[in-house]
Amino acid sequence: MLRRLALAMSCLALLWAAPARAADPDYSDIWWGPGGAESGWGVNFAQSPGFLFATFFIYGADGKPTWVTAEMFQIGSGRYSGGVYQCVGSWFGGPWVPGNAGCTLAGTAQFTAESLVRGSLVYTVNAVQVTKTIERQALTPIEVAGTYLGGVMIKGTSQCNGGSYTDLYNYQYIVKQLPQSVIRIEHVTTEAVTDCVMEGTAVQSGKVFQIPSATYVCESYGINTTANVTDLRRTSNGGLQATWTADLGSGCTETGNFAAISQQ
Question: What's this model's pTM, rounded to 2 decimal places?
Answer without folding.
Answer: 0.86
